[in-house]
Amino acid sequence: MPAREGGAGGQLPAVEGVAAGRSADPSSARQAIAKLKSDLDRRGISICLSGVDGCGKSTLAGQLVELLTRSGIAARHLHLYQWYVNLAVTPILLIFNRYLGRKVLVLDRSIYDNIATLFLQDVPALLKHSLLKTILSVYPEFDYRICPIAPFDETLRRRPDTEMRRFRGLATAYEEICAVAGHARLPSDPTLFEEVLAYIARGANGPHGKPLA
């Protein structure tokens, strides 16, 4: 799993958007950083990025960790994809970080991505949605849930092995999952990074779409 940490202070970096060279608005960055620092006084924070392969999750995770690290916030980028890891290990990691680790964890894969692949299987819809709701009822919360949305042609450019049928199936699965889990669905275009910072600055979501306390 890739991991990146830091805690040294410094000036805000000019971090570019996912799809093209647009830097984040410094005011958005300052507000997001201030919100996270305030939250970290009380608990560790987790940011979950979900979506179709090639939508910009890993790039966005790297941008967030770079900005936070250079702003004096301890942050870590995690890529956890296997079912058994996200069922057995990730919940422990989230709970430990919330109460003891006190970092910002940025996950560019999570249990939601595992569920999305399950939705592609020939399983009754009722069973799929029952599993989703059951997992969400017992799973530790992510403080921020974000789903970048990219059209097929852009995804194909980033990931040339993308198949149209699988893309459509996953896009539908993520739409359904995000509606239940309360993800912010944001276009994966040059405004993505700034929109994510604005979302964080608002303190947008606690468990499953509810406002953060």
Summarize the structure.
The protein has 213 residues and is of the alpha/beta class.
CATH topology value:
Rossmann fold
Structural class: alpha/beta
Shape label? globular
Secondary-structure element string: HEHEHEHHEHHEH
How far apart, in Å, are the first and last alpha carbons?
Answer: 31 Å
Major sheet characteristics: 5 strands, parallel
DSSP helical segment count: 8
Spans of at least 5 consecutive residues whose pLDDT stays below 50 are 1-21, 206-213
CATH architecture title: 3-Layer(aba) Sandwich
Number of strands: 5
Mean pLDDT: 86
Instruction: Please bin the fraction of helical residues.
Output: 40-55%
Q: Over all CA atoms, what is the radius of gyration?
A: 17 Å
Broad CATH class = Alpha Beta
Structure write-up:
The chain is α/β, with parallel strands linked by helices and 213 residues long. It has a single domain (43-200), classed as P-loop containing nucleotide triphosphate hydrolases (Rossmann fold, 3-Layer(aba) Sandwich). The chain has helices spanning 26-40, 57-70, 83-101, 111-119, 125-138, 152-158, 164-181, 192-201; strands at 45-49, 75-78, 104-107, 144-149, 184-187. Strands 2-3-1-4-5 form a 5-stranded parallel beta sheet, with helices on both faces.
Strand-helix topology:
Blueprint: H1 26-40, E1 45-49, H2 57-70, E2 75-78, H3 83-101, E3 104-107, H4 111-119, H5 125-138, E4 144-149, H6 152-158, H7 164-181, E5 184-187, H8 192-201
Parallel strand pairs: 1-3, 1-4, 2-3, 4-5
Helix pairs in contact: 1-8, 4-5, 4-7
